[in-house]
Amino acid sequence: MRLLDREAAGSVPRIGWGARVREAGAPLAIRPYRLHFTARLLSWTGSAVSPIGLAFAVLHIGGSASALGLVLAASVVPQILLLLVGGVVADRLSRARVMVWSNIVCAVAEGLAVVLLWTGAARVWHLVAMSAACGAASAFFTPAAGGIVVEVVPPEMRHAANALLKIGQNTVKVAGPALGGVLVAAFGPSWVIGWDAITFAASAVLFARIDLSAGPVKLKDRFTADLREGWDDFRSRRWLWVMVCQSALVVPVWLAGYQLLGPVYGARFLGGAAPWGAVVSGFTAGLVAGAAVALLWKPRWVGRVVCLGTGSMALPLAAMALAAPLPVLIIATAAAGTGLAISMTVWASLVQERIPADRLSRTMSYSTLGQILPVPLGYLLAGPASHAFGVRSTLAVGALVIAAAAVVSLVIRQVRWLSLAADEETTADGGELVSAARAPR
Hints:
Oligomer: single chain
CATH class of the largest domain: Mainly Alpha
Low-confidence stretches: 1-13, 422-441
Strand content: under 5%
Helix content: over 70%
Shape: globular
């Protein structure tokens, strides 16, 4: 077995760093991808500052923390309800067109909210309606955006294309919150939301310029037939639903531990917002570093890399549970950001490689829905748990849950041997050599 592995490894030529860098930037030479990348980057500049603008807009019109919670929840519920429909629509119609109209809906909704804020007529329910409209549009945009990469770049460039997108997104996240605070203080929350609306409109224009060769539009007699086909494709891939189950456990625990209890920990144990801000900066720096690593490194054994990246997210929660010094906590959070960015990039490339393009958006919508459904429950349980058992004890349990989810998934053979090299031979358990035709879906 080891001899076979060495022979297989020896047959693969080594690639120099110069060639890797040129290969990493190759997708940007393709006009449709360049338009897609530019549009996403522009939209992310608005999305990075809009949360703080929205929060202060609610407070500006007299809303409370509960009102802000209602506004934020209004964006999640439509996504849960419409995500599967969005996946079907993205597979039936032009994905670029779906992305155009999704951005137009968000631009109009936020533009109307800005006008109401400028005129002093805005009420909380107006912002709830705006948030719900954008959430509904996101339910259509997300499956379309996840599937369009396979249409605009050839298979050998998809990994680099995904990594470039992740670098752009994470780089914007680094300065976004701080810039949003400055803009709100200088110009007011309505101008920040207005900027987000402008970026949505400009992105819609760029998406509309993506010229893809028109293929046959797939229509079925019944809409539910497409939903069922997407579900059958999803559940037939054991490796996929196992990893989605992992994410359904890890994502709410991470968000509850880092986003909800993290600031509480910072206030009680670190001394306030400033040191916690340093921790957040460590995470965003890790996200950028991880995306850069993924751009130059294409690992073969994706399942192991994804599980390792998932496991790294337990490090910050464990560091807080153990009351680690601030520098240690920052390093742990940066490591989690790095692992998360690498795992998300290689996972996107794997899904795009393994799932047929005509079913990609539907299958991804089931995957995304499985991850976000438990998130509200995680937020609801984290507060009472921290009151009953203490913040650090709750964080310790969260770290153990994430680590266990990462390890248990590797017990599944299809996960452990997941490979990006679908056209090459992969080594299976027990010394058996499995060909691409027999490789697990």
